[in-house]
Amino acid sequence: MEVFYNQGVENTRLISDVERLIESLGPLPEPVAEPAFIVVSGLPGTGKSHFCGCLAERLPVVVLESDALRKALFSSPDYSSQESSRLFQACHLLIERLLKRGISLIFDATNLSERNREHFYSIAERLDVKLILVRVEAPPQVVYQRLMARGEDSQGKSDADWTVYRRMKPAVDKIRRNHYAVDTSRDITPVLDKIVRQVAR
Ligand SMILES: Nc1ncnc2c1ncn2[C@@H]1O[C@H](COP(=O)(O)OP(=O)(O)OP(=O)(O)O)[C@@H](O)[C@H]1O
Ligand SMILES: [Mg+2]
What we know:
Layout: H1 2-23, E1 37-41, H2 48-56, E2 62-65, H3 66-73, H4 81-100, E3 105-108, H5 114-127, E4 131-137, H6 140-153, H7 162-168, E5 180-183, H8 189-200
Parallel strand pairs: 1-3, 1-4, 2-3, 4-5
């Protein structure tokens, strides 16, 4: 009885979390028959959000940036495992709901472990949507410079710094599926072009 009650409370919370996230998104692109489902993966400061922003200028997609979504759910985030678990559960359901409505999206989060990415593999299989995976990288010295500069202006939505980068580095798993790799210390246009072409096909 207790178990059912707790499950009910958790589901109610999950649904209200997803509604809050949807409200935080602003205008969504027009629904299409075969929505694009793009997931980027990479350590802090490697240039994921920059890359997603460039892609969103060329494709009708909504960018789901985990840092922005976290702040929509938690006004002063503590980055605890409970907080992340609640956030990502809501993100997974949000992604599924948007794709079911035909909304193309990019999920911008570190997504470092294969265990994290399994959720996206299973959503894509369940909804029969093609998943485009992108591994975003940059040499550590470039990331270091960027994160130091970010610390000075702190305009972005991410709070991650060099200490967070170093702490997360051992968690990087190889992506076991086909994916694009982009080094953001070089020209990112060729990979952007390829993805735009793949989505148009
Ligand atoms: N291709 C690029 N060319 C020039 N500057 C870049 C490029 N990619 C990223 N940057 C700059 O590097 C900094 C970090 O990039 P960004 O915020 O996109 O990283 P991130 O991977 O999203 O980090 P986090 O995981 O913390 O959100 C930003 O100031 C961004 O403008
Ligand atoms: Mg980012």
